[in-house]
TrEMBL record:
Coiled coil: none annotated. This is Heme utilization cystosolic carrier protein HutX. The gene is hutX. NCBIfam families: HutX. InterPro entries: Heme_Transport_Util_sf, HutX-like.
Amino acid sequence: MLSTDLADLKAHMADNPGAVIEDVARERNVTPRAVIEALPAAMVRMGGGEHFAAAMQDISEWGEVTLIVHTDDAIFEFTGAVPAGEIGRGYFNLMQPKGLHGHLRHERCAGVAFVERPFMGKMSAFVAFVNADGGIMFKVFVGRDETRALRADQLARFRQLADRIAPAL
């Protein structure tokens, strides 16, 4: 990306930090990773993809969260506990027979982003698993309490995980 394009993207994200990442990526013909990295520095930290399994294991202890898969054709949302998983046969396997389960290509994860930003008038916090192509595999959002505020216990876990995987510079 040209430095002028990057500066323009950073300015856009500073003015619109709550913009839908995938929409900005499509509109500007950049990767979602580039959009995340263009957010103001105080809103994002990026760790390496080698932390995929450790991050997923930690998230499996958070309780009810919302996991989102955003494609060009659909936005899938799952609200509930993310199951624990294990690596086997080339996948990170989510080990439960019902609810959220499946097989994740963990080796394609090139980054684990921790994002805290305003979205639709409220603060949000999510972990984005970024693939080798700069796309977002999926996002896991910190849950909300009965007042729609971020759950304090999960936000603390989110920040602790970020400190381990993507320490602030």
